[in-house]
Every structure is written in C-alpha cells, then in structure tokens.
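Section handout 9: paired folding examples.
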Amino acid sequence: MQFGRTYEEFEVGAVYRHWPGKTVTEYDDHLFCLLTMNHHPLHMDTNYAEKTTDFGRNVVVGNYIYSLLLGMSVPDVSGKAIANLEIESLRHIAPTFHGDTLYGETTVLDKWPSKSKDDRGIVHVETKGYKQDGTVVCVFRRKVMVPTETYTKERGGEQPGRPTPLS
C-alpha cells in the first residue's frame, strides 16, 4: 500500500480519490466536540437542534469534517510529508448529519522545489469532501512540504523507522 508520495511522484492536475469513506456517527461527533470543548448545542443537543435551527437536527461539527477529510488524504498526499506548511483556505459548503458517509478527493494544483533545500519540494493541493449523494460539504487548500526521492534514499528508504521482525 502506498503511503504518501515523494515530490517527483506528484503531477499537477492529478486527482486522488480517497477510499474508503467514513460514515459519521453521533458518537464520532459528540466525542470530537467533547475532546475539543465545543459544546455548541447545534452539535450536542437534539432537542435544541430540532426546535430552534433551520436544519431540524444536529449538524456534525465542521472541524471534525475537515479533520476527517485531512486524515483520509494522508495515504495519497501527505504520508511522507516533512511538514504541513499552510491551510490556505477552508470552506464548509453544506451540512453533514449523523449517518452521512463522507468521501474525499484531492487535486494537485501546483508544485515547486524548495528555495532553501534541494531535497524537498512544496505541493499545493485542494481537497473536497462530499456526502454519499455527491453533495460537496467541505473544501480546503493546503501546502505540504514533501521529500524528494534523494531525501528518502539518504534516510534509509521508504520506511526507515519500521522495525524488522525478530524471526
């Protein structure tokens, strides 16, 4: 299984479809809210959401949706990353509800060599998240510093920190 890419492996215009998707549960949403201390009733209180919001039900907290999509993109985009440099933009387009299944895809917008070190480059990508019916729910752009093939070889190959079995 591929886990990230080197600079040379990225092509401007390439689209990576992240799979599998993830069905968002009420538990996922509540746990994320509790871990991040986001106690807004739109996410936590069904009675409030049903009676006082335009949605008539709980909406999954947007930062969880972003985090989930970012995580989905790691095997295709940033699994070999040296650093995530910037989240350039983050837009929540439509709500996600408990029981929705999310999928993501990332498009390579641009790439360029690092100005300070010749063993790495910067990749500019846009990730879109969409629900099972195709509705786009979240879009974000980020810049990721990734190694070149030279960087990887000089540091022991694809998985230098992976322990070897004790046969």
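Moving on to protein 2 of 2.
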Amino acid sequence: MPVAIITGASKGLGRALASALAQRGWDLVLDARTPEVLHSAAEALSVYGVRVEALPGDVTDASHRAGLVSAARKLGGVDLLVSNASALGAEPLVRLEGLSLEGLRRALEVNVVAALGLVQEALPLLRESAAGTVIAVSSDAAAEAYETWGGYGTSKAALDQLAAVLGEEEPGVRVWAVDPGDMGTDLYAAAVPDDDDPRPEPGSVVPAFLRLLDERPASGRYAAPSLLEGR
C-alpha cells in the first residue's frame, strides 16, 4: 500500500485528506500538536483497515520530523508528503505595523523552514517511490494582497517558491503547491474571529487533491477551485 505523511492532520483539511486517502487504502503517518485530538482522528481512520501511525509533536522540532519519516519507513516508504501544518503569526491577524517579529518568525519557521526540513528528511524515500509526491498547502494570501494577512501570506509565498524550485531540482518527484481556496477551518476562525460568513467545509476541496494524485500533472502551483471546476 502507498504511504503518506500528513502534517496538521488532526482536523480540518489535513484530517479530511487523510480520511479520503484511508478510504483508498493508503497507510498513513499523521502529525499534529494536540495528542488527544490526533489519536482520536487516527482511531477513526483505522476503521478503513489501513495502518495509521499518529505522532504528536511540533514540525519545527527536527527530531519529530525524523520520527515521522522513520515511522513511514517502517510502513514501507514515503509516496506522498503533505505539508499542511500552518501558523498564522498572530491570532487574530493584525496589520503589518503591529505584527510582532516573533510571530512572523514563527510563521516562517512552521510554514517554510519546517516544510523544507521534512522534505529533506523524506527525500531519499520519495526518490525511491515510483510516484513520489510532495504537496505544499498554500493559500490565496500567497498571491494576493489582503489587509492583515501580510505575515501569513509572506510565509506561504515563500513556501510556493520553495515548492517551485524543488520541482525543478527533483524531476523524478511531483511537487505541487496547492491553494485550497476558502474553507471553514479553525485556522481561519483564529485568523478572523469576527467573520461569521459561512465557508465551505474542508472536505469539499479534497476532490481537487485527489484529482492531482490521479492525473499527476507536472510540478507547479494549482488552485483547488480551478481543479474542481475542471472535473
């Protein structure tokens, strides 16, 4: 069975994608910072008859990243690495004039540095896979200028560039930066707590990710809404 590592997998998009892959027979290595929520998610996914390893921790911790890859190696390798764990930099979001530099460093450390560190750790196994794939979960804030989204958007723009260069350097591995579009997640609620407008459930964009896995287009940046429209 193919093996996927998914960070930020206890809820939201990470859990929705993990569920879809489990239903397809993928074995999973899941990461999140809250042990109770992560183990609950792993238990729910195990009903599909797949192997699920839940490793609570912080992706900025090098030993934790090594543990994720080690767990995947024991399951058979790494066929898919999804960098979904994200930090906003401030909760709720603030204008750049009020953004603490420590908050910006945290966003960059989680969204960019840790993502690269995990890729570096997993790259030997990704190269060995017949369908090695990296998905970097991006944001429209990486490409558009939205007030108060400056720190988070900057980190996601950097992640996009990292993914683009990795795709050039690793022609045998598919590398996709994917903008999932608007979603109703805890991350968004923390970013803009006063926004009560309804947003799509994270599971609604999962078919876009599955389409990429099925069709395996060239490495590049993709927007989930466009992929869903083209179904």
